[in-house]
Specification:
Blueprint lengths: L6 H4 L3 H10 L6 H7 L1 H11 L25 E7 L2 E7 L10 H7 L8
Antiparallel strand pairs: 1-2
Helix pairs in contact: 3-4
Protein name: DUF4100 domain-containing protein
Pfam family, one: DUF4100
InterPro entries: DUF4100, Peptidase_aspartic_dom_sf
Amino acid sequence: PVPRKSAIAKSVSANEVLTRILATPVTMSVEEVVSLSKDVASEFQELLKVRRKEPSINVAYAGDSQRFVGGPLITIPVEINGKKVRAIVDSGSELNIMNQTLFQQATCIAIDKS
């Protein structure tokens, strides 16, 4: 059976109306948008997170697998239980790392590998 339409309904395309409705600007506060959807709130949080920017590299050589960062390493002389070593200082690091052999030679502390 063919669906029946009024003269007015025949002159209007449902797809065109839907397209126009979806393109219509809606004035809402950020609070309204964020409170409506947990996904939208999460996306806003992700966009607002401050991230450390990686330094840009001007020169790289093909086949070189090393990662280039900024300038030279900062090294300082350090003495650990009477043993003199050179330490690398990385002011942006979140970890303190020491060679296992050096650690065992310089201290009497057991390494917890759990």
